[in-house]
Design brief:
It is a single chain. 39% of the residues lie in helices and 19% in strands. It is α/β, with parallel strands linked by helices and 128 residues long. The protein has a single domain, classed as STAS domain (Transcription Regulator spoIIAA), CATH 3.30.750. A 5-stranded parallel sheet has the order 1-3-5-7-6. Strands 2-4 form a two-stranded parallel sheet. The longest helix has 18 residues, at 26-43. The radius of gyration is 15 Å and the shape is globular. The chain starts with 12 loop residues before the first strand and ends in a 7-residue tail after the last helix.
């Protein structure tokens, strides 16, 4: 049996939604990492949009799944965009210097306001 789901279609973007309100602790972080990596690998997508709208608290352990997924996405030469971030989550990532809106700065994550903007940003050209 072929591991390819479709013969005539491709999906270059996968949207992942984190459902946990509080992402902290090694066990939860490892579980989320494993689920994200599995979904991304199985989808064969190039890019990822991560919807963090449900997350109100993100610990340092909670950042690890995002870093692991981003590493895989970059290995495929894709891009990862974080969306719908609550103020506390965005603050943690901003203070950690892990997010950007301009794709020019050498940071780990891009951010957009919502999923639609995240998907759209993947198809805009990078400023020179």
């Amino acid at each position: 049996m072929s591991d390819q789901l479709y013969n005539h279609l491709t999906c270059p973007v996968i949207v992942l939604r984190v459902r946990e309100a509080q992402v902290s602790g090694d066990a939860l972080a490892d579980s989320i990492r494993d689920e994200m990596l599995s979904a991304y690998t199985q989808s064969k997508a190039l890019h990822v949009v991560v919807d963090l709208g449900a997350v109100v608290y993100l610990s340092s352990a909670g950042i690890r799944p995002l870093l692991a997924l981003n590493r895989e996405v970059r290995a495929r030469e894709g891009r990862m965009v974080l969306t719908n971030m609550q103020p506390g989550v965005e603050s943690v990532l901003t203070v950690s210097r892990l997010i950007s809106t301009n794709r020019v700065s050498p940071v780990s994550f891009e951010k957009q306001t919502d999923v639609a903007a995240g998907v759209s940003s993947l198809y805009q050209t990078v400023p020179a």
